[in-house]
Predict the 3D structure of the following.
Amino acid sequence: MRLVQASARTAARGRVRPRFGPAVALLSVAPLSVALLATGCSAASSPGQAAASQRLTVAAVPGIDTAPLMLAVQDGLFRQHGVTVTVKNVPSAAAAYSALNHGTVGVAAGDYTAFFYAMATGRQRLKLVADGYDATAGTMQVLVLPASRIHSPKDLAGKVVATPQAQVAPYRRTFPYNNETLATESVLQGDGVRPAEITWQAMPAAEMISALKQHRVKAIVATEPYVIRAETQLGAVEVLDSCSGVTENLPLTGYFAAAATASRHAAALRDFQAAMTTAQADAAARSTVQTVLRSEQMPAQDAALVNIGQYPTFLNIGQVQRVADLMYNSGMISRTVSVKGLLLK
């Protein structure tokens, strides 16, 4: 995956808009690599494909952001680059980070806010393998009931707003604790609404629609497929696009490796990067992503209507640095993270 140092993206990509919560992927590198060295074996390859000299186990929360990962497996892209990848599901970004922190997996993909928080608080030394998924218009929205008296961002002041649960960063009502609260608070400040004026109530994303319907909260911060479900089930309407203005095209998820793992398995990670670059480019076609989502048991109606964001085919250092800077400026972290220092050598 190419690296670009810039404050804005220099390559245009198709704008398919997303609506599935940020997913997480883990690549278990070390255990299988050791086994291959011990036995002297490598996976057999099909004619015309490179021999798969490395085996990676990938655990993923199925979702829009990891659709290229599944696409790469289905199309044999990893094997073409000398890597055999097996995908297993994990339940959350918190589970992903925990597995990485305990050394039971080699690489994890998940929310930038979660992993940057871990690095900024000294919990883990990580390397950034690739940018996974970036926002577009409609990727993340603040929604209210159609009969609500909330018609503008300023009307949210003094209200209880539901958000997905915190992951690595702790849940606190006074500062951001995940992608959703960081992006939403950043935009709200531009509209003259102070973060302290809103009460954030974290809950499982699947419960937010019922909480809104039952008037337990006045608004929800939703990603897909919960945006489309709130719209179709409740007639919910958008009050705020959380990925607009200062957060426009904000990077949301990336692939990370522990620094020690990146040092030992640099070749395997570069093979993974190469396959993912092709898969991310292929995922620019909306129909391709929809097919993957249906294969992951997303209802056909949801797959047809969800917004789909951007799948970067290069890592833009300046763009990803925006996330770390927003976290620092908001008080989410007390020291910033240098994205340039996280790159694979």
